[in-house]
């Protein structure tokens, strides 16, 4: 059976990169485990008068290059190992983007759909009270992730500000603009992915005009990718959420589907399109497949059925190492999560920088700076693949991205005398 534990997968990926690059074994040992892990109980008084105790986590994976940075998930299937894996990927993501931040992540095991607004606010505030000593603009900067929102970030920032006795906007990013959020943050992850799509399409000779795109996930990342890919001339023919997928060979209408998703709460009830299962969506004959939902979606079981010409990992960890190998052998380029979805953390970095300077930028300034970093990261991956190809070693985009990131984190650890 293939390994599906996300942290073990993150370690396997690091081990593979370490082998290719001949990583120092002391640096390797340091990078295989998080530096600090916090596990907390989060009691919340529910509207029925009972107290429910939720379990929460916060992980600092590596801070050699700067404060820990990473989102907070509220999800029923959250686990410490998922949080550790995501914190590791944040470390590589910030290093690949070459921004002065380390890797962190947080999560609470809960189903926010079953909480009313007061309960959600209490949970958000209590979680921050519990992990407060682990947070701070110079220590650990949090952000939204799956099922957490700008409103939740505003409550968390407010609670942290109360703890320290002054406004501390820079403790958390992804806030509404009225309370220190950055212009351009809400669609930054998808916009960053579109720059990667543009560059990768050029490299692989895929014409974006009328290119067929399938997207798994219609949330913050997938929803904006749907809207933005149209601007590149591409045609989204299929999209899904947890209730199922819709398909049209002529292309789907973003506005109509957004309205129906809002109205019915799920895509499965949208009218006028062919229905597909999530697995069928992944196996469609398209130019570009964008997994934008959860981990472990393309595995050894379905990797040989993928017909897309290129995979862009907008979600974190959607492709398992076994599937990675199969896609690589089948010459389907698969651009890794910590490159493709790094737009979110890059604009989070801009938000943090704006908060600490009290100097705010326009959306054009934000997007222009984002584009430069995304193009630079993409080039560093392609250049590293070329460098290894010249040494007669063919490596995947994921391994090239790992090598760039691990070299940067290792250099910082070495200079600081950590090994
Ligand atoms: P979200 O909560 O806004 O949306 C998640 C979407 O996935 C929802 O539409 C949900 O219905 C759908 N979904 C859940 N399970 C599914 C399944 N089995 N099949 C199909 N769809 C399913 O979350 P998001 O912020 O869009 O995050 C999605 C992914 O992108 C996650 O892996 C997240 O870590 C990653 N990511 C997001 C950001 C960001 O800025 N939002 C940044 C970096 C990475």
Structural write-up:
Among the domains are: 35-168, 3-Layer(aba) Sandwich (Rossmann fold), CATH 3.40.50.10860; 188-335, 3-Layer(aba) Sandwich (Rossmann fold), CATH 3.40.50. The radius of gyration is 21 Å and the shape is globular. The mean pLDDT is 97. The protein is an alpha/beta fold and 419 residues long. Strands 9-8-7-6-10-11-12 form a 7-stranded mixed beta sheet. A 5-stranded mixed beta sheet has the order 1-2-4-3-5, sandwiched between helices. The two termini are 36 Å apart. Strand 1 and strand 2 (51-62) form a beta hairpin. It is built from 14 helices and 12 strands. The longest helix is centred in the last third of the chain and has 28 residues, at 363-390. Helix content is 46%, strand content 17%. The structure holds nicotinamide-adenine-dinucleotide. Nicotinamide-adenine-dinucleotide binds next to helix 7 and strand 7.
List keywords for this structure.
single chain; 419 residues; alpha/beta; Rossmann fold; seven-stranded mixed sheet; five-stranded mixed sheet; 14 helices; globular; binds nicotinamide-adenine-dinucleotide
